[in-house]
UniProtKB/TrEMBL annotation:
Gene3D superfamilies: Medium-chain alcohol dehydrogenases, catalytic domain (3.90.180.10)
Name of the protein: Alcohol dehydrogenase class-3
Organism: Rhizobium favelukesii
Amino acid sequence: MSRGRLPVDRLLSSTGPLEGINEAFDRLHAGQIIRHVIDFEGA
């Protein structure tokens, strides 16, 4: 963290539409990803 800014791109490991939330939870549970962001714009 430099100059009070968070490196958001490095904190996220996955993005996807709401329709894929069940798969995202499966991947989170399996340890394949750490953070997932739901992309409502791409839906």
